[in-house]
Write a structure and sequence with these properties.
A hairpin with a 5-residue loop joins strand 17 and strand 18. A seven-stranded mixed beta sheet has the order 9-8-7-15-16-18-17, sandwiched between helices. A three-stranded antiparallel beta sheet has the order 1-2-3, with no helix packed on it. The chain has nine helices and 18 strands. 41% of the residues are buried. The chain has 296 residues and is of the alpha/beta class. The longest helix is centred in the N-terminal third of the chain and has 13 residues. Helix 8 runs parallel beside helix 9.
Length: 296
Amino acid sequence: MSRSLAQAQEVHQSLHRLPTAIGATPGKFVFPEIGLTVPAQHMAKWWPFLPFAVTLARHSYGAVQCGADGRPVVSIAGLRLPVSTPQELHIVHEVFVEEIYRVEPGSVHVWEIGANTGFASLYFAHVLGATVTAFELFPELAARAEALLEANSTPGVKVHALGVARTAGELELEFFPESAGSNGLFGNHAPDRAGTARLAKVRLISVEEAFKLLESDANAKPIFAKIDCEGAEYQIVEALAETGLLKRLAGCVIELHETGGDPNQLVAHLVEAGFLVHRQPSFHQGTAMLWAARQA
């Protein structure tokens, strides 16, 4: 048995999810229970993706195939989502399977602060029927989000290659491609950060200016904010509170991070603005999910 096939069998047995063995045909590895075939030349990069690929397929959430370039492509909710890193496949699972951002379908306009590569924008538009105004700090990720939205014929979503902050400006920040979803104003928060950083030039827009763009898109719909911006959430919520804009939101979901501010103060701003707040620890070290809704 080849070393690669032995490694495949080891992965198979450690997952305890596939009832039949992994086989190999000339030039290919075949995972029959999840309908996946991977050309041998791409197999080395696939090991980190297998646990989530199995979960998606085994529970009929979606399917994972090997794209022409060797990258995984997820088919879920009628969409095709190419992913470049295990972190991105995990984000697909969070957004489409766990539905951590679910709101009442079609009833709101979503203000997405931290669009990353566009998976949540797709979810809001296609699964929930919402319209979206999205902001992404890193231009490279904003471009990927726009391409993904276009490839999936997504209406009602605008992506701005701008970071939302207390004040406008321009910066040069480190960017780690291997953990792109963890990059932010205060560095990269991925505990298992890998790869080499490069410098990225970014532009910031003030909270007030971002709200003006958002309001023109919302067309009088209630505004729901999804804020996942790696520590910048504290200054954003504080600025929203100081300007009175926080009271104009219908609700929000925020990923809290250890860096950037005081979670208790952030919650206090939300309560003062009339929200009921629920906080839940995340599986990710140093983060928590926070939901804020208006009282019925």
